Automatic annotation (TrEMBL):
Organism: Larinioides sclopetarius
One term under GO cellular component: DNA polymerase complex
Annotated ranges, domain Integrase catalytic: 254-406
GO biological process: DNA integration
EC class of the enzyme, as a word: transferase
Origin superkingdom: Eukaryota
Segments forming a coiled coil: none
Protein name: RNA-directed DNA polymerase
E.C. no: 2.7.7.49
Keyword annotations from UniProtKB, A to Z: Endonuclease, Hydrolase, Nuclease, Nucleotidyltransferase, RNA-directed DNA polymerase, Transferase
Keyword Transferase: yes
Gene3D superfamilies noted in UniProt: 1.10.340.70, Ribonuclease H-like superfamily/Ribonuclease H
GO MF terms held by the record: endonuclease activity; hydrolase activity; nucleic acid binding; RNA-directed DNA polymerase activity
Amino acid sequence: MPDGSEKPAMFASRSLTKTEHNYSQIDKEALSIVWGVKRFHQYLFGRHFDLVTDHKPLVSIFAPNRSLPCLSATRMIHYALFLQAFSYTIKYRNTKNHGNADALSRLPLAVDRDCEYLTEADVTNILQAELMPVTATDIARSTKTDRKLFELYESLKSGTELPVPWKGRESEFSLQNGCIMYGHRVCIPEKYQNQVLEELHVGHPGIVKMKAIARSYCYWQGIDASIANFVQNCSACIATRNEPARINRHPWEWPNGPWQRIQVDYAGPFMGKMFFVVSDAYSKWIEVIPMKNITASFTIHHFRILFAHYGIPLTLVSDNGASFTSYEFRHFLKLNNIKHITSAPYHPATNGQAERIVQLFKASLKSSRGDSADLNVKLQRFLLQYRITPHSLTGETPSALFLRRCIRTRLDLFKPNLRDKVVQKQSSRLDTESILREFREGEKVAVRNYSGPNK
């Protein structure tokens, strides 16, 4: 312990075998050290420990920094070689002060056996060992002693009426080599039901598949319930089971107009930069801004620019990042009377619109890696293309809903010029309405006089 005191973690002792009784005293003392190290191997291996003995010659013999002479006893050499696998410091303690270990040597176990007793680890390994398969002989033997199947067995053997649980089903049961058959399936005694379930569950099939396998081989009353309960309590199956069906998610209410609710998120580090993503919930209009850093003050700076362009929104949705939950940012929203909604921790789907924009934006830039254009150029191309693409939810382009007009792109060059068409129509109409009139020389004509009071 840190204060120098000793606290026992475990005690162990054993009696000497007939052969070990004939060892010399030094060999017996060495045996106790080696046996103790083996016994507490799981606590000692891989760490440095103190080895205390009241037999002083062993301090020199088992010292880690010394080797034994070539002519040493073979048994002692074997002990020394075994201890070399451990990191320890051997110390001598007088027998008077060695009572915590010496007392056990004076209380030998009244068991005379050559093998060492099993440890908890040994018992665990035995319990985990693969069970022997159940055979027809085992089933026939246990059927005669099973409390549920014995009456059925006797009735089938004597040809009398079957007991109540199986009454009226005589044609379904038969005897074959001492085993009760239910159709082509063997009736399993209660003793072997768990073992049969283990065998049916090799490979960890689900409930339905496990029932299908069982219907080809075995039967007992309530086998379907036993299979369902077994699979539902299998720790390996639970660990790999699919998530339960999701409940109906509550969608966000659609705003009444553009820039009333905006959803924001940070993307990155991506391509060596962080990106600030802003999405309008009404029109699906997006802004993606490369950021030098993502502090609250820098975030507020870019919000001021956006608010100068589009105005102040009613609601802002974000995750729980430090940039959005700091006092400075919350104070900024309060000054502008903006309601702040944060997504549930570890549930980014709450802010799903912004998360989806991040995925689309990253996928677009990854796809354009072969393009030699600058990153900012690629980003602006993505934004322009996104803003003129009809959204699957609204059926309209983000620009049409946000700006109330369709923005012009190079794709508009494909369309004929509308202005030329209008001018042409106007000219043709004037030509139609205008009539060329011809006059003969000396013909009288009426002239409109615009001078005078009556025009």
